[in-house]
């Protein structure tokens, strides 16, 4: 420890040099924060791997229809909509747990709920009580998304000179990826040797152990968001009453959308009366899907534009600074800043171009998001690979390929530029869907490709037969393509957001990526049941044309804007 000036150290005395490189990493890893961050990453990744992936392998094995699996995958919307209740997590004190600290109280509550919910799944038979099973899964997904809110805040607030935000983020990702292997590959391997309820019971116990990490973690003091009050209370900002009306419209739209989805899920998962039939997912998505997207995306955008219009004409604005605030005003300000302010800034800055940006974001990940919930049923039940084979190919080998794709995306950004990489990210995943269509139809194209490049000989030398080689090649392509596309998307959204609203805008825009894909999973599940995997894979590949079109339109828009900026 350096001696302070108060101990009569000369002002020009040299301080011990800060450790660098590997030495800095060793110092950081020795701190309590770094160790806790690894555990928190694991605590975040484990429920996501179980609920969004492994759970579907269980459901497919016991004969649950793909349409039902698709609807059940809508619990993943909890992760997309989590910014809606983020203000409550930020401000609400939990009775009896507040003594643990601002963030730890929420984290340990979520971990306890997750452990109980995963255990609840273990003791519930989905073939006899799919409705109860779905409710428990939703509770688990909601708790997982809420835990992520608190963990993200903990990571940002606990960064310091010794454990930087970049290092904490890297440690978080390492823990998260490790949990993906445990909740994916290890869970599948265990399921080949014991029952699914036993697997989920073991995972519930593992989730419960994460509370030990939380109890050891440091916390940050509760603070008042003075800057938020100052920003919204400045002269020229909309008056609280006007903001309240605009916020009510946005919240009403979101509540209607969520209630509509929940009502259909309940109807879909409820027991069918004798002679009755399940409602059609395709019909629901066709009739209600556009309205849901409109209510969650375009109504807030219209409200944001109205807010800009009122401020530009000084209608309903504050004439002097507003210092009033309390618990209800604080929560309202947080929600307004999460739902209206980011879109208002985007709409004001991009004008009509915001429609192209939103179209880009809504469709970019559609091709691979729409079928991701059916990967395990496809591999295990349709193609009849063993759990061990799928665990290795998808969750171990696949994660390595994803990391390679992420690295490749970063390299291409530096070498060929932003939009060429983004365009590749839009074009490559649809080709992966065509590859899976061939895999569903017997893998003749994949076999020919492997033979031409002599990969069949390499596979044979490594002990992989023709069937395993097909699966590995399909997963290699898909995971590299989606890893590259994910990197391109993150970089693109990061370039679009305002520096003033970086975190809020990024959370809002990135959450919209999964909206259309998640809603489309119900339709995909019903289509898989009706038409088979091959035709549906080919149809979703064609949908990639929409994403490519939006990328090209956005490229043109940005190029023109940059050209105008140069002239000015």
UniProtKB/TrEMBL annotation:
It is a multi-pass membrane protein. It holds the Pfam family MFS_1. Signal peptide: none annotated. InterPro entries: AmpG_permease/AT-1, MFS, MFS_trans_sf. The chain crosses the membrane at residues 36-58, 64-85, 106-124, 130-154, 174-192, 198-217, 245-270, 290-310, 352-371, 391-414, 474-494, 506-524, 536-556. Belongs to the major facilitator superfamily. This is MFS transporter. It comes from Novosphingobium humi.
